[in-house]
Amino acid sequence: MNYFRNHQIILLYCCFMFQLGEKLKFTLFGSSHGPYVGCVLEGIPAGTPVDYDLIMKYMTLRKPSAGIGTPRKEPDIPEIVSGVRASEADGSPILIRIPNTNVRDSDYSQYEHTPRPGHADLPAAVKGLNCMGGGVFSGRMTSAVVAGGSIARQFLSAYGIRISAFTRSIGAVSDPEERGFDDVKGSEAFASRACTEDLDGAMREEIMRASEEGDSVGGITECLVSGLPIGFGGIWFEALDSELARAVFSIPACKGVEFGKGFSLAGMRGSQSNDQYCYRDGVRTMSNNLGGIVGGMSDGAPLLFRAVFKPTPSISKPQHTVDLRTGADAGIKVAGRHDPCIVPRAAVVVESMAALVIADQIRRGF
User: What are the chain's domains?
Assistant: First the structure.
C-alpha cells in the first residue's frame, strides 16, 4: 500500500491531522469518540525491527489501573495497516489505527451548551469544533502517541538510547530521592508508576481519597534519557530541550515542563548551578543541575526533565459555568468515566513523546 493510499484511508476516519517532526514525521489523527485514533509514522528506515509485543507492553502501561483509573475500558489493540513486513519496517510510512469500542456520545450531550471548567469546551465551541467526549483534545488520543512512540523507541535502541519515566509526585505525596535509570525502569511494576512499593501505596491512597470526594488530583512525571552523546541536539528553535518541551506540552493536561533543577535554579548562584566537568573515562559532569542540556545540546549527562499535569478537570463536585444558549450563569456536575488522576498513565506518554523527538533529531543529523 503506497503513501497516498495510506493518507486516503486516514481522511476517511478524521478530517483533523496533527504533525510532529521533520525527517521522522509523526501524524496523529482521529478523536475520542470516532471510529479510530491512529497515526502515520514516516522516516523509520527499512529494516528497523518492529516488535509487536513491545508495542503492546507500552500500550498496557497506558491503560487505567483498577481503583485509580477511568472505568472506560478499551482493548487498545493497534492495527498496523501498512509499513511493516515480517516484523521489520519496509521503509514506507507506517499506518497504525486503534479502534474505539466504547463511544457513548450521549454521556456528554448535556455539556454541549454548558462548557465544563478546565476542559477545551469553551474555546472549541467558539471555533465551531466538536468537543463531544473531549474530541481531538481527549487523552484518548495519546494511545496513538504511545503506539507510534514505541516504534521510535525500537529505532533508538540501535543507538543505545534508553528512555524511562516515573511519577515524582501525586498531590501531596512526593518522592524525595534522586533516581537512577534502574530505579526509574522499576516503576513499570507499580500502578502509580512510583519507584517503590511504599510510595506506590501512598500515591494510590492520595488518588482514591480525591476520587471518593468527587474530586481529582495532579502531579509530576519525571523522565530520564541515557545514551545521548555530547553535542547531540540542535540550536535555538531546533534545540533539543525546546523541541522536547513543545512535544510534551502537547500532551493533554500538561501545564509545565522543566529541565534539571528547572525553576529551582532561580534561587541558586552560578557557582551552585553550573555543572562542572572532570575526566572519568572521558569528559563527565560532576552534577546534573541543568538536566543534561546546555545550548540546546547534550552535555553527556543523562537528559532529565519533568512534566506537570493538572488535576483531571472532570469532577463530580458542583462547579460554576454558563449556558451558551441563554447567556446566563449555570451550575454543572460532570458525570461519566474519568480518571481521578492521569499522572500514572502519563509516564509512558512522556516517554513516547521523547522518543519521537529524539528519533527525529537523529534523522535530521543532529
Answer: 3-316+335-363 (3.60.150.10)
